[in-house]
## 1
Amino acid sequence: MSERREMERFQNAVERWSEARGRDGKRAFTIPLTGASRDPHFLELDRISMADWLDARGFTTPFLRWYVEYGTRDDFGAVLSETSAWAGLHYFAARSMETAQLEGSRYLVWPEGNGWLVKGLRSRLRARWRHHALALRVVPMGSRVAVDYLDVDRDELRRIEADGVVLATPGFVTKRLTKGLGDVAPLPDRTTSPWVVANVHVERDYEPNRAWDSMIYDSPSLGYVDAGHQGGAPKRRTVLTHFRAYGDPDVAGTRAMLLGHGWAVHAGAVLDDMRTAHPEIVEQCRRVDVMIWGHAMPRPRPGFLGADPMGSAPMIAERVAWAHVDQTGYALFEEATDRGVRAAEALGKSLGLAMGDSYLGPVT
């Protein structure tokens, strides 16, 4: 009963934060972050960790702590002590859907995830794509700007000249690319969280009651999704995509540890974790593909909002705009879209282009 009471008390607190508005009239938490209140009362949450916030309010039961930390590991790749209380509460309180179009609906998902959205965007663009190109640096060219890159297929150094450039790259990469530009606006320093993602190919009897997304209580992982769940008629063969975020403070040491382990260690850890829910997983497994993401997403540690909460200006140098979730420190698709649109519109305006109405609607 104590766990149920704590869960109810936590949900009530989240509900109050979902409805809270600051003295500036804005919601305490929004997606994207640019619409959120700058009220100092709310921003004070960024001074402490989510662990401290829970401790101060007597949230101590193991299930409640696991439940909240699942959220911080899921969106930020961070344990409670590594997560700003502002970010931790945002995870639970910002997802309010009150439009008539979304009545009765809570989620939009596709079999290929965000890949579906990327394909849709590409199909509407009349752009020239250059694949297998590794950007090396951005350099000024008088009234223009150039990007030097390595053509991987030809093993040649090449250059593109343009009126302007949008860099959709993490902060630590952007700093390297823009070293030759001279006067570049300071970029935020973000701690990034390492992840291990594994595709477990299985063959098993079809069971209609299996879920798309499954979590394992008290597991260090985030569970797994059935990648074939929404792909049409059910099949005996499918792929279970397993996720684990490493949320402890020593991110550099964790990255070194992950790189030092071979495929057998990573695959074995994945199967051992899944065996808790599926004792037969080893017999059903046909193949395991493992990918280590050393810098999966920015981690919103206490203080991540900084002196300029909710993100810096997109123009970081003459003719160069920056579009990345590192600006706000929040790795959400909606955040990335918002930063991309802001960067494109700011760059177009700086070049004297007639941009028309903004794609960014008002946030209430």
## 2
Amino acid sequence: MPQPPLLAHDLVRTLDGRRVLDGVSLTASPGHRIGLIGENGVGKSTLLRLLAGTDEPDAGDVVRPCDLGFLHQEMPYDSGSTIAAVLDDALREAREDLAELERLAERLARTAEDAPGYADLLDAYGGRLERAQEREAWDADRRAVLVLDGLGLGAFGHERTLGSLSGGQRGRLALAALLVRQPSALLLDEPTNHLDDDAAAFLEERLRALPGVVVLASHDRAFLDAVCTDLVDLDPAVDGPVRHGGNYSDYLAGKRAARERWERRWAEEQEELQALRVSAGVTAHRVAPDRGPRDNEKMGYGHRAGRVQSQISRRVRQAVRRLEELERSQVAAPPRPLRFGSTALAAPVAEEEGDGPLVSLDGVRVPGRL
């Protein structure tokens, strides 16, 4: 049974009067691990929620696998639930597959091959067997132990309640539950938050081994480099979000080239606009009908003047039409890249201060960020 894809078509979402996503489409096929990148506020988390079905688009549609898994910011359990309860829920589908296989096998053993319904039983057994193999159901309990150890939760007693865990530990447990389940499509929002280097490396390995779809949002460049087969850049671009094949290093090279093309196209259009404005204005002035004939034009002035004025008028109309068209369709100016600079940072550092801090921040607060 082939793994199903995850499809989104022409998604539009407006939040608080601002259009966060405008006509975004995405095709995520099994085996592809797609990273969503861009500055804060460009719609990465919003797109993940739309793909997961926890939020609805204003326009567009999503086709998703029925067993999609989404790493929520908050776990869907109350604080009195235990680690054991979370693991039991993660293992439920695998255990149901194994129990159903055992039940079907017993019925097949009691049913003659020429009996009515035997073929249907055999088909049901084959379908359930294929699903159990895809989910690696026989290995699920061992996988749970490995995943908990890999994410730094192996020493925690399974009787511990979620209320006794820190926020980071609960986040790791939620991630562990999804990795144990191994759904057909996995959506992750900043999955390396609260992970140390060893746990992040373990997560990279597990994600690369998944046969289904993975879509994740992250600012962790090393993680994106290690995991992703494709990247979708949601930052402003001439033609909207851009999909790049390859990892983060490949993306950086492609983005630099795309930025250069955008800047070049914008500069060329601005130059053409300026030339058209000058041409339309100057040429229109030359068409002025009250210019009298020069002495050497008087004999044939009427014929030549009419012909020249007609040619110039045609040029004016063409220039004005092109000017109006280009003003309507011109590309937006590329946003200025974020730059940090300070005369203090550029000041020479005394030799005895060379090992000290270059910059010191104290009490910095950015609402909603820091």
## 3
Amino acid sequence: MSESSWDAALTELIRATMPAHERMHPSGRLRFRASARARGSLPRHVADRSAVPWDSIVPAHAGQIEIEVGCGKGTFLAEAARQQPEVFFVGIEASPSYAAQSEHRLTDRGCTNAAVVADDGRLFFADTVPPGSVAKVHIYHPDPWPKRRHRKRRLFDRQFARLVATALAPGGKLLVATDNTRYFGEILATLGSAERLRRSRETELHYGDEVAGVAFGPTNFSQKYRAEERPRHRAVYARTERASIRETSMTQAENSAWTRVAALDGVPTDEGLPVECEGKELVLFRTDDGIACLEDSCPHRGAALSEGKVRDGEIICPWHGWRFVLDSGECSTLPGSMPAKTFTVRVESNEIFVKLG
């Protein structure tokens, strides 16, 4: 099967397995649309219960195409369109009112090489973007949804990573920025497990902190966080050919008992990194001896240990303060009580593997 045929087949499979959704974000923005339409405050392209056709968004003569997911009020989108008139930009925004503001900003600046679509970013990639058609995807400061019960709303997961990899042309780039250290670690873990995405350190060094209108900004959030001196995390992933799937000295094919869960450089130094392995929620920690893996659930009442604080080689449960030794899972608060469940970890070539059995 050719690369393009494989991409198309994968896209159809993902579409078939995705549950039915309203097109817009489940925050009430869909219900807002009727009143917004009456006021004339919607952008030209609004996905209702079906996708907006790609050829009605992108002109036939468009050359290089770049997509920004979550374009907000259009700060980056307008600057990018102004600086790169030879590129056609598509901004995706779940909020119709923000999408309208982005479109007005483009109009005010006379940018004809960009379009804005009010749609759900995940669904847009699943049923609108043709495979291999995009040169760059920009995702800057996505909502981290910090509460555990809201994690399912996060944009980055393995399914979305596959969708982006399918949309990118060979050699295409995914650029990500966030101020949230924990979420950044999860993003690295998710993208690091994608078969056809590989982190490009060279490109990250080339772009640095920000190249206005090209990479990482400007956005309203980046300007705000720079002023507040918050941490600013950046990553670039390149789309590789299917034949160049990540190679390590130990693969799942060679030893099916081990499962890759994260990249080593995605684990923070002073907090846990929540990961999922075969449906089980785990958390990774850095220790003096390397990496420790615990079940992301306190044996006392089931609190997420990933939300606790790390102190002196122990994780402190965020609910009742029970302390567990990272390397052994032993409870030091009440010796002899229930320990946290631990799992064997192996690190190979900057990749972290976990053995559940």
